[in-house]
Amino acid sequence: MTNHSNISENDQDLLLSKAYGKVLNGELDSAQIDDPLFKFLHEAKIYQYGKSEEIAVKGKDDVKASIFDQINQTEKDQTSSGSANIYSLSRSKWIWAAAAAVLIMFTSIFLLRQNTQVESTLIADAGTTITPVELKDGSIVTLRPNSQLYLNSESEEHMSYSLSGEGLFEVTHNPEREFLVETTEGRIRVLGTTFNLSERNSETNVYLIEGRVSFETPDQDQSVTLTSGEGATIRDLQLYETFSFEESLVTSWTQSRLMFSDRSAGSITDELEFHFGIEIEMEESTRSEVLGGSITLEDREQSLQDLEVVLGGEFVQIDEDRYQFQLQ
After folding, report:
1. Are 205 and 173 in contact (CB under 8 A)?
2. In a domain, 314, yes or no
3. What does pTM read for this prediction?
4. How many domains does the chain have?
5. 276 and 236 in one domain?
6. Of the residues 59, 90, 223, 236, which has the maximum number of CB atoms within 10 A of its CB?
């Protein structure tokens, strides 16, 4: 079959594409390719896996400068060589620009993750019970069922923890020490205070009961300082306006009860799902009903029965940890 391609077998971009294919197939290591972008990717790979080599680039602005310096230098080298290529002023340049843009994007993500990922050690898992945990400085954390507390780092001047789930924090006052609690959506900075922190469904809520805290997004671009009686929410990395709350409604779970006022049935069942580690199916019309009152959290069957009475229906168990609400 006749080859109608006008691209020479020695075309630089064609050779680079073939080399890239060999890298993807495991036939060639990226370090063996004599190309500035591939060399940079290889350095990033080395850095990611903690080897001895170091990347000279410290941030995404430096990354951009480094990449485009290499692009400009390559174009200068091609110009000075006097070689002619029908794609030299259009196709090659656009390929370089596209490659640079993609590399900048992925390198920015890589650097962000390197800055935010922390090696953590699990220090408490509440399992199915409300679990109090005493920290080394005397602070007390009461974990809600199905919640975990991790230690990120600690020193005399700094203590950092991560929370998955929900917990009530009673932090010992120490103005010479920074106390941090992180979730996937937000971060709390305190000196000495009491607050309730919950994290689930891409949403972090903090309720400050006593003291003063700073509540911020992981990238620290958005933050708010809370005082006693104020709460705030970060949802999908967006900080929302502060609000007031009633302490007894927020912390009632520590007494194995769920108290609520003007709350939707959907938000109540969401909380029961988390507390007992179950799934509840419910029609949207029922989820939107507004309720007030309290139910026990000591036993899930009793909790569901209490809610059945108010909603006028029945929670039918369709699997070991799965229920469906049916109106009567």
Report:
1. no
2. yes
3. 0.63
4. 3
5. no
6. 223
